[in-house]
Amino acid sequence: MEEKEKQNQHNDIVTQLEPEVRTKSELQPDDWLCIICNKKITTDKDRFEFNNQSEFQFLNPNGYYFDIITFCNADGCREEGEPTMEFTWFPGHSWSFAFCSRCASHLGWKYHGEFSFYGLIKSRLIKGVALFN
Ligand SMILES: [Zn+2]
Q: Who's near 59: CB < 8 A, 6+ residues apart?
């Protein structure tokens, strides 16, 4: 697990160094992009189902509701912080922060445990199809 973490972090750094070559014409309707900088974060094809669900609404300890979507991959995210079990929304899974690897917006959380997946905040993403108009 720890080795895998290091590998993931390394891959994230490599991603950051690559020039951004994506143009609007390469977007797919089922892509999910960062709403701030429009970097491709993930795609509907990578949705992950936790207990047969990929969309959730959670209340955080400060009283804010978050609508989140779960994905098994989110290449556009950079992971940060030590995973913690504190207030975790997914039983048995620790979390760390997930930021946009281009503009550093907080997009959601990376979960670790029996499954490894991302929970991304719906309102901080925009669906590719929205840019096709
Ligand atoms: Zn961004």
A: 65, 66
